[in-house]
Structure to design on (258 residues):
């Protein structure tokens, strides 16, 4: 019988890309991604919503306050967030997704450009100059802002106008995946930090133990080698000592010593 040998030769390479989506209770199945492209879009959208686009000081009137107040602001994703100057914690959030337009007080929008747009209040006339602008919302509402300089106002206007009306979607499943990833990364960092601290403290504890033992051994050795001190008997010159004891020091002069 003739033996036939079959030679194997690679004719191609297959690369398989897999995206594992963990169980997400409470998320409707129809909102989950159905393709790898949708997964990439969702994760890119979450990264977009976590980015800080601009920050600085503005004086605000409207929204959660009824009078002009100076605040620290950050544009993070689709939100304009105000922070407390002392604690640094977020105290108010303005959703740019709900904003209809950004209006410059020096170049107001034409009537009818924004549905429900109202006229300006007389109380805003003091700040209505080259450094004032507004966010316009539904229901005849707006929030006025006053920048510290014309340059800062121009930058705020440029970024806000680029965001308002152009905000990408924020999928719930992608946000939950991002939160789980951040929690896992924080737990791993904490574990590594604790392990590193434990590794650094162990040699220190051993060194302290050796130091204590050496001190104990030294004291134990000294206990058995103690000798009673020999009393020193001073010799006195009776004549000089008696004279010295009868001489009183003058005022301001030091007392005589033996």
């Amino acid at each position: 019988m003739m033996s036939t040998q079959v030679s194997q030769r690679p004719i191609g390479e297959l690369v398989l890309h897999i995206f594992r989506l963990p169980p997400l209770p409470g998320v409707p199945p129809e909102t989950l991604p159905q393709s790898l492209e949708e997964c990439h879009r969702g994760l890119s959208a979450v990264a977009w919503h976590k980015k800080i686009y601009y920050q600085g000081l503005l004086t605000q009137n409207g929204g959660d306050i009824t009078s002009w107040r100076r605040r620290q602001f950050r544009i993070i994703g689709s939100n304009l967030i105000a922070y407390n100057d002392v604690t640094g914690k977020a105290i108010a959030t303005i959703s740019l997704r709900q904003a209809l337009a950004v209006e410059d007080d020096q170049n107001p929008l034409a009537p009818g450009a924004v549905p429900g747009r109202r006229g300006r209040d007389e109380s805003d006339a003091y700040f209505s100059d080259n450094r004032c602008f507004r966010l316009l919302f539904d229901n005849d509402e707006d929030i006025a802002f006053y920048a510290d300089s014309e340059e800062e106002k121009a930058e705020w206007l440029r970024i806000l106008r680029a965001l308002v009306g152009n905000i990408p979607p924020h999928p719930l499943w992608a946000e939950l995946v991002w939160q789980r990833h951040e929690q896992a990364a924080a737990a791993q960092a904490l574990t590594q930090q604790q392990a590193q601290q434990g590794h650094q403290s162990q040699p220190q504890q051993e060194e302290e133990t050796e130091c204590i033992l050496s001190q104990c051994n030294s004291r134990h050795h000294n206990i058995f080698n103690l000798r009673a001190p020999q009393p020193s008997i001073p010799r006195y010159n009776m004549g000089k000592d008696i004279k010295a004891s009868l001489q009183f020091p003058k005022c301001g002069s030091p007392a005589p010593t033996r």
About this structure: The longest helix spans residues 172-223. The two ends are 127 Å apart (CA to CA).
